[in-house]
């Protein structure tokens, strides 16, 4: 039953995020074409700024979900209510801190973006900040739904709201200027306001679903929260999670701000176009594994270590199969896709594309390790290493962007991941979750084999596309479709041949077979 729930959540998460990704791409395309590349660059830089401000959230959602696993397993509704009350209070404080920080950032946006009026930029940034705060509405209720292995509800809701937001935003960009005497700057403000309204509607839907699923918890009007010792333990974890978020944000969100500050806002816009696709792939992967995190978390507290390790190897192999496909597809498809999506003026060179491939694979193949680490609540042991990662990344980024341009920035991003978390996070998982450091080295044995296979698949598929597709198919759309078919076939067939006899492939096929049989019986 847990496997079935995990698969349902993973499927909904993947499909939901594909919808989210498509709507974001469509919205971005119209944003670039109607408001021009410089304002699209502002959108990218603002989102990076908000990622830094989101540090105020302290990784609370991750900690909340971890904290809920045990009382859900024990069906302890009183304890669940206490936890939800605590986090409701916490999110109120976080919202105030976030908006206070947003006011400071709004006054400083001109430092990174010099092309536009500072007052206009400040007002626009506050709207973007309002959108983030709107996402905190009913965040505690959403966390319970996720911890209870009902991620599919959240994924479905997010997808529907995303489609609705896209339709209204694109409609405003295209038709409002033909009806009202407004310029592109006013259109941008309306564009941002629509997103806030849609975000609030989505939160209200989640609140309504919570009342339907958990009427007893909703009817309980108790204000009691968790005990002081529990709060102290959570505060320690929250401090550790803050450090981890600083490390993650320094890698994922500092790029556009650095490009804008050291190059220009148009270059930040081009960089942002590629990073939308990169982040979409990473987030799609996260959605897939978010669907199984709760199941793995409950498994790790109720099963023997050998069985947990077996499931970890299966998920690691699945992680590799997905990343080999994602990385190959990015390498082969991204250039014609960018041309078709936003035009030739937004293209980087092939060298930059391959560097982004390295970044995508290195960051993505860690997903199963992060899942195991988060499900066990391992936030404190490597908290200072996360800060070290942030420092290394920012220092390298500033140095290398002045030498190699955007390529230097990308090198800095994946170099900081190699230097710090690539070795430290698996060590913690094998020490505390698997409780067997002897098997730690075998993780890297698999890692090297998977890396070699993925790299070979990327270069082979890229070579086949350049040699056998480009000389014969000049139409961009047809070229893109044929390349996509090639990406579906080549890496997946190679992996099937290479790993068909491995225990992980057999376990994966057996698991899929069992789940499909359970669906037929249901």
Q: What is the number of E strands?
A: 0
Portion of residues within helices: over 70%
Helix-strand string: HHHHHHHHHHHHHHHHHHHH
| Low-pLDDT segments | none
The biggest sheet amounts to:
none
Radius of gyration: 23 Å
Rough outline: globular
What is the mean predicted local confidence, pLDDT? 86
Number of helices: 20
Structural class: mainly alpha
What gap, in angstroms, lies between the N and C termini?
11 Å
Give your account of this protein's structure.
The structure is a single chain. With 522 residues, this protein is an all-alpha fold. Helices cover 85% and strands 0% of the residues. Helix 15 runs antiparallel to helix 16. The mean pLDDT is 86.
Comma- or semicolon-separated keywords:
522 residues, mainly alpha, 20 helices
